[in-house]
Amino acid sequence: MQVTQYIDHTILKPTTLVADIEKVCAEAIEYKFAAVCVPPPFVKKAKELTAGSAVKVATVIGFPFGYSAVEAKLAEIVLALVDGADELDMVINLIALKNNDWQYLANELNHILPIIRSKGKVIKIIIESGILTDEEIIKCCELYGVAGIDYLKTSTGYAEKGASVHAVSLFKKHLPSNVQIKASGGIRDYAFAKELVEAGATRLGCSAGVAIAQGQSAGDGGY
Predict the structure, then answer these.
(1) What is the DSSP string of 76-133?
(2) Which residues form the active site (predicted)?
(3) Options 8, 86, 89, 150, the catalytic residue
(4) Which CATH class is domain 4-213?
(5) Catalytic (active site) residue 20
(6) What is the DSSP letter of 14?
(7) For a disulfide at 80, which of 24, 85, 103, 201, Cβ 3.0-4.6 Å?
(8) Mind listing the pLDDT tens digit for each residue in 51-109?
């Protein structure tokens, strides 16, 4: 299986250097990855570095904990769009979810979705599936599936548990066919990447993209 087309080549560490961005963008072009996912301050730079290629530029919103105010997330989204982001990966307010405040989550989505849609950009909603119950995951699939987001994404890579075949399978079973699935967090080798794609993932967020493309394990490490 050729997995490179599914990969969002990712670097989100808080100490990211310009040189790191140059490296991941060059690798994304070389291996024909779907996108690079970079910290918000580097969106403009990544757009410059990937210009003329098919590689999309993604960034994160409300990352990694998701409890930013809706107004703060909106500000982040506007800035990312101004800088040229093609895709936005937003963490939901997990505090609201864990307190069973689904109305808050619906309101959050209703505020952010129109601006992204108005610019014709892609929205990926991160629910941190590794710390949710199956019931909570299914409710997320129902809420965000009805709204017609582009992707439901498993994880930030910062929780104690990242992507799993079980979570992707649940997504696949409970999401409408027009909503795609992004698995992320702890994907460090080709075998696991292949399992996730076979379970239904159409994007893979990982920092080990090159190792995966080469069929190698990147060993232990973060997102």
Answers:
(1) HHHHHHHHT-SEEEEE--HHHHHTT-HHHHHHHHHHHHHHHHHTT-EEEEE--GGGS-
(2) 89, 153, 182
(3) 89
(4) alpha beta
(5) no
(6) T
(7) 85
(8) 999 999 999 999 999 999 999 999 999 999 999 999 999 999 999 999 999 999 999 99
